[in-house]
Amino acid sequence: MDSRISRIRTKLASVPYQAQRSHSMGAERHEFRVGPRVSSVQADAFEAEHHIELPPAYRKFLLELGGSGAGPYYGLLPLEECRLYTMDRPSSDGTPRGFHHASHRDALQGDLFLHIVEMGCSDLCLIGVTGPLTGRMLTGNADGFRGANVSSAQDFQSWYERWLNHMRDGRDNGALGLTSPATVATAPWGPRATAPRAMGRRAARV
What we know:
Layout: H1 3-14, H2 27-30, H3 40-50, H4 56-64, E1 83-87, E2 99-101, E3 112-118, E4 123-128, E5 137-141, E6 149-150, H5 156-168
Antiparallel strand pairs: 1-2, 1-3, 3-4, 4-5, 5-6
Helix pairs in contact: 1-5
């Protein structure tokens, strides 16, 4: 088993018992428990159905640790409930960019993001699955009520382990580092005309 997966598994088992741990919203729902692992057949079928490749670090987590449950905010969505989104076009007045389901008639034909963590209401926590942000975690709001921001964590497992560290140390979900000034959502993450879609897997950066 991957050493990071082993380390995450150990932290996940110990965090609930840390005296100073955070009691952030959502923890009472998942109770730091993950759901059943996803099989490689299930992951392959999801990829084939949606014509994407799951980022390697996220896919490995699903296959080797758990397919839902414990995670930031209200936790990880089961793979079958994850939906693809595209980011809206930048507005002329500079208001924040929203997101649309990839199948929505108003969705741009741009880079794809998979909604994998439940935040509630119209807030979204997504992972990039095509384009320059493949493998990176970001948050946004479907209706553009606030700007989209990318985590400084280089892949899903790094982001998830950061969450565990923060829970252990008594910090809230808001401390996840989901704001990186150099990667605040701007024009490059738009239509294929300005940011061609990249279908190949990117190697996970540790």
